[in-house]
Amino acid sequence: MALNMPGRQAMPGKIELPENVVVSRLDELANWCRKNSLWPMPFATACCGIELMATGASKHDLARFGAEVFRFSPRQCDLMIVAGRVVMKMLPVLQRIWQQMHEPKWCISMGACASTGGVFDTYAVVQGIDRFIPVDMYVPGCPPRPEQLIQAIIDLQDKIQREGTITGREFDTSQRQLRKRALVEADQLLTLDAARNPVAQRELSAAAHRT
User: Fold this and answer.
1) Where are the domains of the chain?
2) Closest by alpha carbon to 90, among 146, 120, 129, 33?
3) What Cα–Cα distance (Å) separates residue 204 from each residue in 75, 121, 196, 208?
4) Is 184 helix (H, G, I), strand (E, B) or coil?
5) Whole-prediction pTM value?
6) By the number of CB atoms within 10 A of the CB, which of 141, 144, 165, 188 ranks highest?
7) What is the C-alpha separation between 199 and 207, in angstroms, rounded?
8) How far apart are CA 86 and CA 128, in angstroms?
9) The CATH number, out of the four listed (3.30.470.30, 3.40.50.620, 3.30.420.40, 3.40.50.12280), of the domain defined by the range 26-173
10) In this predicted structure, what is the pLDDT of residue 82?
11) What span, in angstroms and rounded, lies between the C-alpha atoms of 164 and 35?
12) Contact between residue 98 and residue 133 where contact means Cβ atoms under 8 Å apart
């Protein structure tokens, strides 16, 4: 099959396209649009939030990567950046914001406190937000520099381009839909924190009497 274009000689078995026509897969085109138009939802609770602000300022200029449109409405965002420690009382707010964000959506855990609890090894601080919501990228540091966050966004863009589909099949994987670690390890976590948590001690005692 051959398609003759003015000024060109068609080759047998090939389709000659004009210079202003690009052929691609729909998934790759959608991924290209998504990765270059990320709208972050900042969830900044501590010093990591200052570094997050610096990332969007003029010196580092996050707009170069198409991710500078910070929105504080979860229904307008597709990238949550959790910057700083998250306490148990704030966790329901974090989960509600995550649930209100439309698919496709991604999450970056910025800093040691958001990723593992950091130096706050107490029952009041969440020991890693990935126990409750899925995390795509982790940024180490206390606090991490803006360059590290930019690298995480670049890596996330590469992940979106490689794995994304227009129908969102990548979000239906069993690993992403499994129960989060905190729900699976609830008994073990309760036992570990009982020594520092009087409420947990009473709950364990009551459970022991019931059994």
Assistant:
1) 26-173, 179-211
2) 129
3) 40, 21, 13, 6
4) helix
5) 0.70
6) 144
7) 12
8) 8
9) 3.40.50.12280
10) 93
11) 10
12) yes
Query: In what side-by-side order are the strands of the sheet with 40-44?
Result: 40-44, 79-83, 106-110, 137-139
| Burial of 151 (C-beta count, 10 Å sphere; 0-12/13-18/19+) | middle
Q: How many CB atoms lie within 10 A of CB 197?
A: 16
Kind of pairing, strands 106-110 and 137-139?
A: parallel
Burial grade of 195 (CB within 10 A; 0-12, 13-18, 19 or more): exposed
Lookup: tokens for 111: 């800093």
Q: Provide Rg for the chain, Cα atoms.
A: 23
Q: Which amino acid, 71?
A: R
Note the pLDDT of residue 80.
92
pLDDT tens digits along 23-58? 777 888 888 888 888 898 888 888 888 888 888 887
Structure tokens at 185: 């390890």
For residues 90-125, one letter each, b for 16 or more C-beta atoms within 10 angstroms of the residue's C-beta and e for the rest, the string is ebeebeebbeebeebbbbbbbbbbbbbbbebeebeb
